């Protein structure tokens, strides 16, 4: 029985994790949950899971949750201070943390988990993008396992179990292409929020869905893969695979390519991360290969989707630049969702921020937080 803390329990990944935990009570016990604010979903989760702890990083929201929990006779302890987050993670009531917090806000949950020497099921790709060197070095020191939950990195993680690192030639990240795969480049400037949130394959939160539509998610995944698997940028390829059946691949020096195929259901990588190295029986429905019929692969259009090239540039520079790339993207995604900038301006403005930033070495979490602050400041000036 693994005792888990779902950080970001009310988001899309968090809710899927609750489903997995509820389906396998003999394997998984949810002892802690967290959310950015109080909601009916959080209340329902507390009633269903009866966790010992709930963390909400806002005093007023935590008080609101406490009142609703008390009204419903829920004995869950609610905390809001940063030190309490660390205390929950450090406690004997938590074996593994599933970090599904959206965006760069998830960094501290990742840091405290790895610092405690506990395993982390990582769905928050921004943690490694913003602080990859720091977190991976720390994980080796504390013997914390970073188990990926992103479908692409989970696929690579699983494929690599069939080979050894010295035989690896390259990683191949797949991308569905999002809702604008067949949209002409000249028409992208007119894309609306509703259009961008209409992903053809995956049901996700707003931020990651926009990232999928711009292919910024592939840029973030290139950087994350570099840190997760210790593979150089020029050995990480991206290929468009519209059917979204193959979640990623690895190629070995002898020409062999291994691929991981599964239904487009995040419960798969979530369950694998939480049960690793074992598998949960009946976790997902089987895919019908004959019904799928055929699959295809396409080269990404780097002019239409410039984020892949922008991310590669950030990774080549390294130091604080990947952090600034991630933070600036998050800033402008929010502006797009509010209707303040055009869809195509997200990438354009991120590139402008990077051009203005003077990259510096980051030796600790305080340096990362400073890089995030600088990125927001530059992004505000770029507008």
- Shape by Cα distribution: globular
Q: H/E element string? A: EHEHEHEHEHEHEHEHHHEEEHHHHHH
Helix content: 40-55%
Distance between the termini: 49 Å
Low-confidence stretches: none
Features:
four-stranded mixed β-sheet; about 375 residues; alpha/beta; seven-stranded parallel β-sheet; Rossmann fold; 2 domains
Please give a structural write-up:
- The chain folds into two domains: about 1-150, NAD(P)-binding Rossmann-like Domain (Rossmann fold), CATH 3.40.50; about 155-320, no CATH class.
- The protein has helices at about 10-25, 40-50, 60-70, 80-90, 105-115, 125-140, 150-160, 195, 205-215, 215-230, 265-275, 290, 305-315, 320-335, 345-355, 365-380; strands at about 1-5, 30-35, 55, 75-80, 95-100, 120, 145-150, 170-175, 235-240, 245-250, 255-260.
- The mean pLDDT is about 95.
- With about 375 residues, it is an alpha/beta fold.
- The strands form two sheets. It has a seven-stranded parallel sheet, sandwiched between helices. It has a four-stranded mixed sheet with strand order 9-8-10-11, with helices on one face.
- Helices cover about 45% and strands about 15% of the residues.
- Helix 3 links the parallel strand 3 (about 55) and strand 4 (about 75-80).
- Belongs to the DXR family.
- InterPro entries: DXP_reductoisomerase, DXP_reductoisomerase_C, DXP_reductoisomerase_N, DXPR_C, DXPR_C_sf, NAD(P)-bd_dom_sf.
- Catalyzes the NADPH-dependent rearrangement and reduction of 1-deoxy-D-xylulose-5-phosphate (DXP) to 2-C-methyl-D-erythritol 4-phosphate (MEP).
- Pathway: Isoprenoid biosynthesis; isopentenyl diphosphate biosynthesis via DXP pathway; isopentenyl diphosphate from 1-deoxy-D-xylulose 5-phosphate: step 1/6.
